[in-house]
Amino acid sequence: MTLFEVFDWLELSAPGTFIRDSVWLFPVIEAGHLLGLSILGGAVLLVDLRLLGFGLTSKSPAYVLNQASPWQLGAIAAMFATGVPLFLSEAVKCYFSPAFWWKMGALTLALCFTFGVRNRIIRSRATLSPWHARGIAGCSIALWLFVASAGRWIGFS
Amino acid sequence: MSLLPFCQWLASTSWSIALHESLYMYPVVETVHVLSLLLFVGSVSFVDLRLLGWIFREVPVSETTSRILPWTVAGFVIAATTGALLFYAIPVRTYLSIFFRIKVIMLVVAGVNAALFHRFVVRNDLSWDDDPTPPARIRLTGAVSLMAWTTVIVMGRMIAYNWFDCDQPQSEFIVWATGCDGLTR
Fold this sequence. Notes:
The complex is a heterodimer of chains A (157) and B (185). By secondary structure, chain A is mainly α. Chain A has one domain. In chain A, helix 2 packs across helix 4, helix 3 packs antiparallel against helix 4 and helix 6 runs antiparallel to helix 7. Chain A is elongated and about 50 Å long. In chain A, 37% of the residues are buried. By secondary structure, chain B is mostly helical. Chain B has one domain. Helix content of chain B is 76%, strand content 0%. Chain B contains 9 helices and no strands. In chain B, helix 2 crosses helix 4, helix 3 runs antiparallel to helix 7 and helix 6 runs antiparallel to helix 7. The longest helix of chain B is centred in the middle third of the chain and has 29 residues.
């Protein structure tokens, strides 16, 4: 089975067909996806801004991260729960959309960087040089903005 | 008084047509509008969550507002600028959109709510500033703000869909609420 056949099968699956056959289901799920994006944006940016010396500077980056973390995880869960059905309803279109593949690549990178590098370094409470902190915050902001823009761009193709 | 003639004039200006018909400019402006959500609604919702006592409970409310809200304002400027451009590109259809109208009403609700919070609540009595869970009236402000912005986002997304557009048969209520009848008069 080729990758295309998998995507074709996913699009014809029961949930994919169900969403495609509904007039309002796709828009409603899409709106939920956007709400998740807003919360994710706040949770990511508040921590990155703190690393850059803005926002809640009376507290440590580790404190801000620990506070934002459940909201970040919840937002990511909500984005997966809404994103997967959106994908299922138009899997074949996604297969041929460069924006979709750019987004998935960047999303993988962003998740690995956030949970494998950024959050670990912040939680270790190691003293970061200003440029080290700026580098981490810059990568995080750039990756997530790229994921969001590429995601929006899927809709234009 | 209807703003329809004004919108029709806007739609006839060459820059409006250029933006509407551009291959990349319109999608780029729309993408920036969506990205501004990350900063704008992202930051304001965390202030709202603090007002509800659900996050940053060890941080005074006044510190959360003074340190985070400037970023909300920056995000709002980007959202409002790109939003105005999106309206300018498609003025008549947007003006007659039921979703756009609900969105504007909710923007006003959010604005009045924020203004009341800063004018009357914060200025008169900050004795609750350090409370991990603020008093009920403060929590109410946070909840109203969260609900208003949620509706703004959902309605904003729905503007793209043409279910209630004037070019198809609509119920009397929709015709009245959208002002579609103004087109034929």
